[in-house]
Amino acid sequence: MRASPHLPQGVQVFERGWLSSNSVLLQGSGQTVLVDSGYHTHAPLLLGLLHRQLQGRGPDVLLNTHLHSDHCGGNAALAQRYPDLQIWIAPGAADAVACWDEDALTFRATGQQCPRFVAHRVVQPGTHLELGGQHWEVHAAPGHDPDSVVLFAPATGVLVSADALWENGFGVVFPELDGQDAFDTVAATLDLIADLQPRMVIPGHGAPFADVEAALARARARLNHFRRHPLSHVRYGLKVLVKFKLLELQTWPLDALYAWADQTPYIGALQRLHFPDAPVPMLMDSVVHDLEAAGAACREGAALVNAG
User: Fold this and answer.
1) End-to-end CA, the chain
2) Under CATH, which number does the domain 11-227 receive?
3) Element at 80 (helix H, strand E)
4) What are the distances in angstroms from CA 133 to CA 10, 27, 120, 137, 196?
5) Could you tell me if residue 208 is left (phi over 0), alpha (psi between -120 and 50 degrees) or otherwise beta?
6) Terminus of the chain with fewer CB atoms < 10 Å: N or C?
7) What residues contact residue 219 under an 8 Å CB cut-off, 6+ apart?
8) Distance CA 262, CA 216 (A)
9) Contact between residue 149 and residue 140 where contact means Cβ atoms under 8 Å apart
């Protein structure tokens, strides 16, 4: 992880790879706020970074842009370390969090892990928040996740975009994988970001970037490709699910990978919906081949090893 040198005073980014989202620390007068907490396996590292950065104090608020496990998996560990921490979440899943419905939250379906946490407030799009002594707007950013939000600071032009916009694309459009028409919502969110005219974007993954116009152009080109070739988006989603688990395990015996795929409800649902003529093992053969071809994994004996 590293802090970006290009951001305004009081804004620090703990940049990570693809297993854990970036975490954004907002400091100043008033409450200290952390945006997103990463995957649960990286929680000890995040706790150490916060301890050093805040000199033993904890953040006052943890705000989740959305509730995918790579953005909220560290919530429970942070709440345990800092008992007074307030956890704020985007709308849409508050009831599922309250009763900890891992099916509604998709953790069980995707074969991912997120320790249980308690949410104290729902952050509504269209509202304004004082975070780390700065004024931030909350905007709905559906597409990758129907309930995701982005945060925009008009005074500095900083946008915390989560997975709505990366420097090279955006997150898998999960509602589209589920058979919903969601590419239009991605386009609308990209238009929203263009209208905000941010001068700096802090994405959910990857380094902060300033050439927002070029990033939007790449994202729109990618979206247009997925519109023309929707099955390529489904294959991309499958690769992301497998790669995510591989990032966690690093070395994955192939027989265990195939067993995991066969037992993961979401993989089976995608196979039945989009590839009814390809059984799950055949589909996994193709996904593993694609990951190898992309340099994202390699075979070592009877195991798949993370690469790239």
Assistant:
1) 17
2) 3.60.15.10
3) helix 75-81
4) 8, 7, 21, 13, 21
5) beta
6) C
7) 165, 166, 169, 170, 190
8) 37
9) yes
Give the position of tokens 């992880």: 1
pLDDT in tens, 239-271: 999 999 999 999 999 999 999 999 999 999 999
**CB of 111 within 8 A of CB of 261?**
no
- Dihedral of CA 115/120/124/129: which sign? negative
For residues 225 and 54, give the distance between their C-alpha atoms in angstroms, rounded to a whole number: 44
Query: What are the phi and psi torsion angles at 74 (to 5°)?
Result: -90, 0
Dump the DSSP string for 285-304: HHHHHHHHHTTSEEEETTEE
266 closest CA partner among 145, 171, 178: 178
Q: Residue 64, SS3?
A: strand
pLDDT (average), residues 46-65: 95
**This model's pTM is above 0.90:** yes
Delimit the domains of the chain by residue range. Answer: 11-227, 231-306
Q: Are 126 and 114 in contact (CB under 8 A)?
A: no
Q: State pLDDT tens for residues 186-223.
A: 999 999 999 999 999 999 999 999 999 999 999 999 99
Which CATH code for domain 231-306?
1.10.10
* Count of CB atoms situated within 10 Å of the CB of 99: 7
Task: Say which DSSP state 169 is in.
Answer: B
pLDDT in tens, 74-98: 999 999 999 999 999 999 999 999 9
Identify the burial level of 293 via C-beta atoms within 10 angstroms of its C-beta, where 0-12 means exposed, 13-18 middle and 19 or more buried.
Answer: exposed
Q: Which two tokens stand for residue 52?
A: 């050093």
Please provide residue 229's backbone torsions phi and psi, each rounded to the nearest 5 degrees.
-130, 70
